Amino acid sequence: MTEVFSVIFFALLCRMIENQVSLKNYNTFGIDVKAREFSTFSTVEELKSILNQRNKSLPVIILGGGSNVLFTKDVEALVLKNEINGITAISEDDESISFKVGAGVVWHSFVQYTVERKLGGIENLSLIPGSVGASPMQNIGAYGVEIKDVFVSLEAFHIDSLEVHTFTNKACQFGYRESVFKRKLKNQYVIVSVTYRLMKNPVLNTNYGAIQQEIQSLQVEKIDVSTVSQAVINIRQSKLPDPTKIGNAGSFFKNPVVKSDVFFALRQKFPNIPNYPQENGDYKLAAGWLIEQIGYKGKKAGNCGVHDLQALVLVNYGAATGKEIYDLSSEIISEVKRVFNVELEREVNIY
Ligand code: FAD
Ligand code: NAP
């Protein structure tokens, strides 16, 4: 009898691994490629059971919302979609509440959850597509805030040893759209939960871009986290293409950061070049501006192109292949290099 129960229990834990599954609905570019093997998991136990039964000759690729990936060919890997849910308050003091959040939770749902409770820290990161589990991957950022500012720790499942390891903020080695998981530990871990600390009396960050202006147009009596969140939502909806209507993965390139001598030389030639001085003396340039200057804003290239309102975003007009989009990005990189002698780096993860 016990054996029967064990078999049933094991069968329940075992998620089916399917073969040759289309990833079209699993990436916001809407690229139609096939994964050699595909499965989903909603608990750590399910993840462990899938990894135990997997074909070890295939690499493993984890997908959240697929909003920061470009598939350029069929994927010779086991693709695992993370569906671990749950938001749990794990500690509280006079100033803050910390939440442990399942990696499969939709990022913007978590933002809304905190905004509804008047907790501050991630209101500027409203409406970023994707999952909580991917948020530390590139230390998501927008409107002057990065997740490293509220990040406490994460739990990640080590694909080879099948052990869960905890990473502190320092251990994640966060940088500008960077973390250790995009570099040294790439493809080695599955992030299963993230813990963030949100503030009860937050200092609002409204200095960035058009936020102040948008807040004024909202005409509220008291500005709070929900005002800032709404302002960010309005700005984003007015500027960025909605991936459910037109395929894209947000900014395709990172903003380049250059040494001061390189910047001064550039400013001699291009006096209007937008620039943001960094704490270490380097200068961040706006990749969107560079792309606009080389005449690519709004440019179409077959089935894909550069968005007409935001030159950092490459779009799929419906039938583009990942290779077409990749080739367009290569063309932009060489043209920017030729005109400005600045090397653009892709932000989107290429497979
Ligand atoms: P995916 O695309 O599924 O995965 C991205 C990478 O992380 C892949 O390499 C994947 O293997 C890995 N990964 C995902 N989940 C896990 C996990 N649990 N464990 C281990 N590895 C994992 N980004 C910003 O930073 N700021 C923005 O303002 C912003 N705006 C955007 C606007 C639009 C319209 C779009 C389409 C994208 C935007 N992005 C932005 C990019 C993107 O939304 C974020 O990078 C987001 O965090 C990606 O989440 P995801 O779940 O879709 O990740
Ligand atoms: P924007 O406000 O038009 O600004 C253009 C660029 O200049 C941005 O990329 C931004 O860099 C930089 N910038 C502007 N004001 C700045 C300031 N006060 N200090 C430092 N840097 C400044 O940008 P946008 O395209 O509308 O995007 C708004 C925000 O959403 C940005 O933070 C952007 O990163 C984020 N976003 C990200 C993605 C993505 O996929 N990664 C997609 C859409 C929007 P930063 O990018 O470093 O902030």
Oligomer: single chain
For the record, give the distance between the C-alpha atoms at the N and C termini, rounded to a whole number: 47 Å
Bound compounds: flavin-adenine dinucleotide, NADP nicotinamide-adenine-dinucleotide phosphate
Whole-number mean pLDDT = 95
Strand numbers in spatial order across the main sheet: 6-7-12-10-11
Tell me the radius of gyration: 22 Å
Percentage of helical residues?
25-40%
The topology string of helices and strands comes to HEEHEEEEEHEEEEEHHEEHEEHEEEHE
Strand content: 25-35%
The total beta strand count reads: 20
User: What is the overall number of helices?
Assistant: 8
Structure notes:
The radius of gyration is 22 Å and the shape is globular. Helix 4 (211-218) packs across helix 5. Strands 6-7-12-10-11 form a 5-stranded antiparallel β-sheet, with no helix packed on it. A 4-stranded mixed β-sheet has the order 1-2-5-3. The termini are far apart. It has 351 residues and is α+β, with helices and mostly antiparallel strands. Helices cover 26% and strands 26% of the residues. Bound molecules: flavin-adenine dinucleotide (FAD) and NADP nicotinamide-adenine-dinucleotide phosphate.
Please specify the SSE layout and strand pairing.
Elements: H1 2-13, E1 18-22, E2 34-41, H2 44-53, E3 60-63, E4 69-70, E5 75-82, E6 87-92, E7 96-102, H3 107-116, E8 141-142, E9 145-146, E10 151-158, E11 164-168, E12 189-199, H4 211-218, H5 225-239, E13 247-251, E14 257-258, H6 260-269, E15 275-277, E16 283-285, H7 287-293, E17 300-301, E18 304-306, E19 313-316, H8 322-340, E20 349-350
Parallel strand pairs: 2-5, 3-5, 4-20
Antiparallel strand pairs: 1-2, 6-7, 7-12, 8-9, 10-11, 10-12, 13-19, 14-16, 15-16, 17-18, 18-19
Helix pairs in contact: 4-5
Bound molecules: flavin-adenine dinucleotide and NADP nicotinamide-adenine-dinucleotide phosphate (NAP).
